[in-house]
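stage 2 :: seqdesign
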């Protein structure tokens, strides 16, 4: 298969009411005028997904921030990957650190959820990242390799899988790792992906996430094996998010 385009993905987390649809419309208007060189995805809270899908936006993919490990059944309050696909999601974020830490989701659960996402035909964006303690103890690479090996289902392809490397200490903190560190971690992730998935492993997009903004996006997106960004806070406003997306206009 051909290499997928880079992806700039917005994770709105638990933010956004119906009034926020205006930001999406504004973003799409920007994209219509500029024809971006990357794919653009918004993962709003689940309450807004249908309304956004109904806008029939040409340039914005819509995704979810989580799904259940099962296809259906007695799981009050939960939502399956099949339901998300059914309402128009193309991507599902799996194993975000706020789910891993806040909801006790380990690699085994992440692997099951990713399998669900892939089975229904969506792309699983599987998140990995080290804590501040692991970072300070210089265990980043060890932790990431273990998360990659255990969280990614064995049938991963460049079509059904994207990896997001998000150091937990960089999320929402305004702190970002050095370029050297991002380069090293992404190179190791690429190596493991190629070892496990061969040619597809070489093409799976690896996003960087954690305090990405318009000022640091060019530097971060220029790093070898960084194939896009997973953006939290700076994805909520169309102007901020578009400034990050526009970084790709500066690349060949
Ligand atoms: P942030 O969040 O950009 O606000 O740091 C990123 C994320 O959690 O995906």
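stage 2 :: out
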């Amino acid at each position: 298969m051909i290499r997928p385009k880079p992806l700039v993905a917005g994770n709105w987390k638990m933010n956004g009411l119906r009034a926020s649809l205006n930001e999406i419309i504004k973003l799409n208007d920007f994209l219509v005028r500029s024809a971006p060189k990357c794919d653009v995805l918004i993962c709003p809270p689940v309450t807004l997904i249908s309304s956004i899908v109904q806008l029939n936006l040409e340039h914005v993919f819509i995704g979810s921030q989580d799904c259940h490990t099962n296809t259906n059944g007695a799981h009050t309050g939960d939502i399956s990957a099949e339901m998300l696909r059914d309402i128009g999601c193309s991507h599902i974020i799996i194993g975000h650190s706020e789910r891993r830490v806040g909801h006790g989701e380990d690699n085994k659960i992440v692997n099951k959820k990713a399998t669900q996402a892939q089975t229904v035909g969506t792309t699983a964006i599987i998140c990995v990242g080290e804590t501040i303690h692991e970072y300070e103890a210089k265990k980043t690479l060890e932790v990431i390799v273990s998360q990659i090996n255990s969280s990614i289902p064995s049938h991963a392809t460049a079509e059904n899988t994207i990896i997001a490397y998000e150091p937990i200490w960089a999320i929402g903190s305004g702190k970002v790792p050095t370029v050297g560190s991002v380069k090293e971690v992404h190179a190791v992730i690429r190596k493991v992906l190629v070892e496990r998935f061969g040619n597809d492993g070489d093409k799976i997009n690896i996003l960087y996430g954690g305090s990405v903004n318009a000022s640091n996006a060019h530097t971060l997106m220029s790093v070898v094996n960084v194939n896009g960004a997973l953006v939290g806070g700076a994805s909520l406003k169309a102007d901020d998010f578009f400034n990050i997306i526009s970084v790709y206009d500066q690349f060949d």
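stage 3 :: structure notes
- Residues 11, 166, 171-172, 209-212, 230-234 surround 2-phosphoglycolic acid (CB under 6 Å).
- The longest helix spans residues 179-203.
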